[in-house]
């Protein structure tokens, strides 16, 4: 079994992910996190380059859906502006939200990738659901002690991942 704390791939940001390459490897849909992946926390507008990236993904024939632990009041307007379906209150890292997102896209987990910025929600949840996992660096540091603690706990895992990944 793959390490549940390690993503399959890691990128600096979502715009560094090549949708055509994902499609070529058999990926037909992508589950997207919101905060610090598509935009900064509580920001109603996508980060620079995200709209263009979404068009590339659609152009590659990929289905797209948002999965967020945030409330529907936060996720619905953002998803609507992007023209995306969504699952709010995702309860990541539990696999149920990922599996519901796959079902919504009418895809199996093997045909699906997930993109997110956190090990303890996005990576573990994708792994538990059997979804290909791409981890991106957060767009900006989050405020609050809880996020700082999670990021501190992620550091040794990411260092170990970087040492072990094939070059």
TrEMBL record:
Transmembrane segments: none annotated. InterPro entries: HAD-like_sf, HAD-SF_hydro_IIIA, HAD_sf, PGPP1/Gep4. This is YqeG family HAD IIIA-type phosphatase.
């Amino acid at each position: 079994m793959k390490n549940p704390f390690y993503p399959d791939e890691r990128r600096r940001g979502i715009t560094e992910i090549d949708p055509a390459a994902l499609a070529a490897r058999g990926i037909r849909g992508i589950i997207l996190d919101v905060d610090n992946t598509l935009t900064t926390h509580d920001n109603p507008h996508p980060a620079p380059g995200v709209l263009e990236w979404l068009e590339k993904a659609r152009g590659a024939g990929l289905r797209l859906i948002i999965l967020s632990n945030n409330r529907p009041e936060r996720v619905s307007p953002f998803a609507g502006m992007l023209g995306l379906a969504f699952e709010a209150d995702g309860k990541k890292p539990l696999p149920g939200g990922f599996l519901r997102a796959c079902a919504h896209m009418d895809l199996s987990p093997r045909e699906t990738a997930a993109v997110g910025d956190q090990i303890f929600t996005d990576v573990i949840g994708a792994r538990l659901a059997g979804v290909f996992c791409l981890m991106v660096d957060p767009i900006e540091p989050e405020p609050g002690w809880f996020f700082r603690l999670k990021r501190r706990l992620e550091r040794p895992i990411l260092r170990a991942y970087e040492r072990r990944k094939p070059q």
